[in-house]
Design a protein that fits this description.
The complex is a heterodimer of chains A (about 600) and B (about 160). With about 600 residues, chain A is an alpha/beta fold. Chain A has 3 domains: about 100 residues, Ubiquitin-like (UB roll); about 80 residues, Alpha-Beta Plaits; about 350 residues, 3-Layer(aba) Sandwich (Rossmann fold), CATH 3.40.50.1780. Chain A has 18 helices and 23 strands. In chain A, a hairpin with a 4-residue loop joins β3 and β4. In chain B, β4 and β5 form a beta hairpin. Classes of the chains: A alpha/beta (about 600), B alpha+beta (about 160). Chains A and B meet through β10 and β23 of A and β1, α3 and α4 of B.
């Protein structure tokens, strides 16, 4: 390894060749401020357009200031990170950025969580000179089913563009125009709704300002809760419990399942249920489908499509409907846990409590923004009444809890309600990449072989590499499993399937890096890589502590099949718990 | 902006495919492909960009980004008589801006736009190398020198 010696702020350091000044300074514990820069090294995500120039430093014998994020260290370099010249330059850069930025911080959805606001505070900006002459660039706001865009707040950091193109390979967003009118937008400045956007929300997760935010559905939920004619049921996704605490200042990776249930009850929900229950149900349906297709495939049935792909992730579903409509019969037909929950709540549960489905409101708490779109899909409603009425994100729930002056940290733990609140360890790991397929393996193995699993943990399926593979021994039958998270990684596996070269029997795909724990609706990670790791670890901890860790052993799932559904993949199960996919690719109409 | 319907004639699709193929459908050749398409069609409407996207695999948002970044590329068709006003230094100091204002007023057009009847389009350019004639206006292939704002009405009459 070739190394380089340099001096930063009078401290000598030796770094690997190719290291940037920013990273070398970090090794010395010097935090040079950054704005456009983003580094999530666990996920191989880096955005360094060198555009904002907040990170400039003074390098001896260099005429101009150097951006620390994109300047490589050289032997004998002498770097100063906080000279008068540097601080003045940073302040000037910040003043320029702010001169074309709306000043409605008080009512901005990002207030308190805004990197730009924080930077203005950190740099001690107290006035923005030339305000009276400053022209503002103006763009029309755009609201899609999941994501709101307010380009007036865009500072051209281009983080969203990196996520959308490099990490997700969705290509919905690009830098457009130049100079004053430069912004990031879909093709032809159409609304996001008409672009190739999958609503994964990774752009929102990294946006440093209020330019990209979620559509807030808390007012709808509040209205339902205040309506005495409505019975309001809530379901919470696995990944929420591993991240919600962060919004209240708790350490990343703190499990707050019990406090979350108490908070939801305090907010007035009539029944607090768990999406984990329907995650177990998903395993029953998807696992049965997998085994069915696998058996037919092994018996030489050419119509059995292998590999089977998971279908829990709505961002992923939107992606293959847009880019791989020719493969739309390859994924499992099982609905996502959110939608399975809605379908069961508005039939089985509504009957049980003798409430008409129109008077039953189902709310979901999701780490995800694509879930907002998913619950609005036409096929998931009956006579205009949605199976899941509203989906709100982890962040929206946190804000709701704060608005209701509930002291979250001091809440006592409590348990979910029955019957849709009971779940297994297999369901809770749905929130981390590899978790769904591990849960499926636990059940499929036991059903296929008729034997008890000796080891419940499939460590070979865990981890954070973008594409992973493992061979699971089903008592002599090797089953090839593929895992991808981040849609660019999924695209690679899909290209193989399209070319007929895929070696896998089953593939799990999650749109967001890290899986749902890294979802677009989670508390902002602000570029801290360790946050996602801590959340994943929390879910595996919760799994290990559960008395039941296999979906098919969930007593309430067994009861649901006995009382209502019959057996997995039965006609009734197909009607309520399965769906079909559509070709959403934009058509080029050729005229003669 | 609402959903744009993409409709295009078969012969135009074939032409774009031919141009893309001549650059091996290589994403790195986007600028050259756009140049060739603009030369053929006169401009780069959404339809053309969508077909280039399908051929090269470049997201259409990226293509639109490139088209809007470089002022040479245009998404509006040029008029039958494209008007260009030189805004180079010599023309500018001799009042090209006032000439441009007059054209804008007369035609009710902004720079980069085309009249609804497709007759005139308005653009500005930098130096045509005829600084001795400043300020200079080009209409199609014809050059007008020492143009004063008062001349604009008369010049436009020639094209009635």
């Amino acid at each position: 390894m070739e190394t380089i010696k340099l001096i930063i702020d009078n401290k000598e350091i030796e770094v690997e060749k190719g290291t940037t000044i920013l990273k070398a300074a970090r090794q010395l514990g010097i935090e040079i401020p950054t704005l456009c820069y983003l580094d999530l090294h666990d996920m191989n995500i880096e955005n360094k357009p060198g555009g904002c120039r907040i990170c400039v430093v003074e390098v001896e014998k260099r005429r101009n200031l150097a951006p620390a994020c994109s300047t490589k260290c050289e032997n004998g370099m002498v770097v100063k990170t906080h000279t008068n010249r540097v601080l003045n330059a940073r302040r000037t850069v910040m003043e320029f950025i702010l001169s074309d930025h709306p000043k409605d911080c008080l009512v901005c959805a990002k207030s308190g969580n805004c990197d730009l606001q924080n930077m203005a505070t950190r740099l001690g900006i107290r006035e923005i000179p030339g305000q009276e002459y400053a022209e503002m660039s103006t763009y029309k706001p755009d609201t899609s089913p999941s994501i709101k865009r307010d380009l007036n707040k865009c500072i051209m950091c281009r983080r969203c563009e990196t996520m959308c193109n490099e990490i997700q390979a969705v290509g919905a967003l690009s830098a457009i125009n130049r100079g004053f009118m430069a912004a990031v937008a879909p093709a032809f400045e159409q609304n996001l709704e008409y672009s190739t956007c999958t609503y994964c929300g990774q752009c929102v997760a990294v946006c440093p300002t209020g330019a990209l935010t979620e559509v807030d559905h808390t007012p709808d939920v509040l209205r339902a809760l205040a309506d005495p004619t409505k019975t309001v049921v809530v379901q919470t996704a696995p990944a929420v419990r591993a991240a919600l605490g962060e919004a209240f200042g708790m350490e990343p990776g703190t499990l707050v399942t019990g406090k979350m249930v108490s908070a939801l009850r305090a907010l007035g929900f009539d029944y607090v249920f768990d999406t984990d229950f329907s995650a177990d149900l998903t395993i029953m349906e998807e696992g049965t489908e997998l085994l069915g297709r696998l058996k037919r495939h092994l018996n030489g049935d050419k119509t059995a499509r292998i590999p089977i792909l998971t279908s829990c992730c709505p961002g992923w579903v939107n992606f293959f409907e847009e880019y791989f409509p020719d493969l739309k019969d390859v994924p499992s037909t099982s609905k996502s846990p959110q939608q399975m929950f809605g379908a069961i709540a508005k039939t089985y549960f509504a009957d049980k409590i003798k409430v008409d489905r129109k008077d039953l409101v189902v709310v979901s708490i999701m780490p995800c923004l694509a879930k907002k779109y998913e619950c609005q899909r036409e096929e998931f409603s009956v006579d205009g009444n949605r199976d899941v009425d509203f989906s709100i994100s982890t962040r929206e729930l946190a804000s709701f809890i704060k608005q209701a002056n509930i002291d979250f940290k001091s809440l006592e733990d409590s348990d979910f309600d029955d019957p849709l609140g009971e779940s297994t360890g297999a369901a809770v790991i749905f929130g981390a990449t590899g978790g769904v397929i591990e849960a499926a393996c636990r059940t499929a193995y036991e059903i296929f072989t008729g034997k008890k699993l000796e080891k419940i943990d499939f460590h070979e399926l865990r981890g954070l590499e973008g594409v992973r593979s493992a061979v699971i021994d089903f008592d002599g039958l090797p089953v090839n499993i593929g895992i991808a998270h981040g849609l660019a990684n999924a695209r690679k596996l899909l290209e193989e399937v399209r070319a007929g070269k895929s070696q896998f029997h089953a593939i799990e795909v999650m749109a967001c890096p890290g899986g749902c724990i890294g979802g677009g609706g989670q508390p902002f990670h602000h570029g801290k890589s360790g946050v996602l790791k801590a959340r994943a670890a929390a879910l595996y901890r919760e799994d290990a502590n559960k008395p039941i860790r296999k979906s098919h052993e969930n007593p309430f799932i067994i009861k649901l099949y006995e009382e209502f559904l019959g057996e997995p993949n039965s006609e009734k199960a197909h009607h309520l718990l399965h769906t079909s996919y559509f070709d959403k690719k934009k058509k080029i109409i050729v005229k003669q | 902006m609402s959903n744009i319907k993409i409709e295009i004639r078969q012969e135009d699709v074939s032409k774009i495919k031919e141009i893309c193929a001549s650059y091996n459908r290589d994403p790195q050749e986007l600028i050259n492909i756009l140049h060739a398409c603009q030369e053929h069609f006169g401009y780069l409407p959404a339809e053309v960009q969508e077909v280039i996207s399908a051929e090269t695999g470049i997201p259409v948002a990226k293509i639109y980004g490139v088209v809007t970044f470089y002022s040479f590329f245009s998404m509006t068709p040029k008029g039958k008589h494209p008007i260009s006003i030189c805004m180079g230094t010599a023309c500018y100091v001799r009042g090209a801006e006032r000439v441009l204002e007059e054209f804008k007023k007369e035609l009710k057009l902004q720079v980069g736009q085309t009249t609804p009847d497709g007759k005139f389009s308005l653009s500005s350019l930098r130096c045509v190398g005829a600084c001795g004639l400043a300020p200079v206006v080009l209409i199609g292939d014809k050059t007008y020198g020492r143009v004063a704002p008062d001349d604009v009405k008369k010049i436009l009459k020639e094209y009635e």
